[in-house]
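Shall we go through a protein fold together, starting from nothing but its sequence? Please make up or recall a protein chain and show it to me in full. Go ahead whenever you are ready, and we will take it from there.
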Amino acid sequence: MAVCVFFCHVFESFNSFGFLFVGVFFFMSGYGMEVSGSKKRSLIRLVPYILYFAWFSLVYFLFFRVFIYPTSWFLVIYFCIMVIYRFVSNIYALLWSFMGFAALLILMDFEWVWMASFGGFMFGVFFARYSSAFNLKTCLCLFPLVFLLPWAGSPALWTVIPLFSWFVLTLSSKKVFRSISFMGDYTFYFYCVHCFVLGLFGCTWTLGGSPSFWGCFASFCASVGVSVFLKEYLFSYPKIQKAG
């Protein structure tokens, strides 16, 4: 999913499907938070995200004069979702809270297609609480709503995310993918830094660049290297907690 987002920032035409890839991030986060029972410490675990947002926003501003960099909306929305999730337990109240948050984003002219992504978190929580419902049949029942609702609206796009998430999670359970699951430790860092690296190499349309094969290849390798550095040294979560 992180690599797919990488290509979304390289090729503008590919960006139309970006909401699906980011939606899976939100879905897995909601599903994982609910299954692990980590609601009580959900706000504590946001401390590193706040640091990421502040640090990356400063770096993007210094290099590109863009305060809200192309991937920062994810951190802002994720923070708001975690606050809602921390204090609302009832599934129906949680749903109405999410819908209210969506209405607020509409009033702020937030793009519909990216609003659809954060809806994946709500689906993740729902399917974690009612795990027996998370199957192909249930997800396919939601899919026809895509053709009944306006494609431009997030309610239509929300119906695609559970089906796509089911496909991704089913695929990732295969042995060949489980053997490389260790790379998931660096996914978030790669997601945060790749657009900045692409901008340095002039390969992302989001910052006015244009893709080239070697530029994209170098950007990918550099993004992986920086992600490892951030994870292992600069933004190590246990070290941040120990530092207070």
Summary: The two ends are 32 Å apart (CA to CA).
